[in-house]
Amino acid sequence: MNQQIYRNLAVWVVLLVMLVVLVTMLRQGHPTPSELSFSDLEARVEAGEEVPCCRGCGQPLKPDAVFFGQPVPPDRLARSVEGAEGAEVFLVVGSSLSVRPAAALPERALLRGGRLIIVNEGPTRLDSKAHAVLRGRAGDILPALVEAALG
């Protein structure tokens, strides 16, 4: 893919994340201040706010996701373990598999007979147990896999 396609994709990803932020705010009962808009959020991030805060309550505006260093809510962890244990194929993309609890999920899949595929630039602790290891950048490998699968 050329650079323009990647730039367009990046813009859509940013817009999607911002939409998720706004929906999450509504679900969490935050007021939606009239001054909050996509352009406002974008300007605040460009100005250096890593995770902008709600101007009404001061809480971080972020997608309903767990960022690095935050604890995984127990119900989400349980669903993740259940999904891993039921997976026929577990695809790891761009992970060193060193941060737990997520790093333990591929092992759960393996223990239940799932196949493990790892796409990563560097080695991981589970490479020797994986059914396939694809070394390289995910942005290069995943589109090639999709192309090979879909023709």
Question: What distinguishing features does this structure have?
Answer:
151 residues, mainly alpha, Rossmann fold, three-stranded parallel beta sheet, 5 helices, 3 strands, globular
Explain what the structure shows.
This protein is mainly alpha-helical and 151 residues long. The chain folds into two domains: 65 residues, no CATH class; 77 residues, Rossmann fold, CATH 3.40.50.1220. Helices cover 44% and strands 10% of the residues. The protein has a three-stranded parallel beta sheet with strand order 1-2-3. Helix 3 packs parallel to helix 4. The two termini are 16 Å apart.
CATH domain topology of the largest domain:
Rossmann fold
| Class inferred from helices and paired strands | mainly alpha
Quick one: how many beta strands?
3
Largest sheet: 3 strands, parallel
The largest beta-sheet arranges its strands as 1-2-3
The CATH homologous superfamily of the largest domain is called: TPP-binding domain
Average pLDDT rating: 79
Please, how many helices? 5
What fraction strand? 5-15%
In the predicted model, the low-confidence regions spanning at least 5 consecutive residues are none
Query: What's the overall geometry?
Result: globular
Element-level helix/strand string:
HHHEHEEH
Helix content: 40-55%
Rg, Cα atoms, Å: 19 Å
CATH class wording of the largest domain: Alpha Beta
Euclidean distance between termini CA atoms: 16 Å
Whole-number count of domains: 2
Q: Write the CATH architecture name of the largest domain.
A: 3-Layer(aba) Sandwich
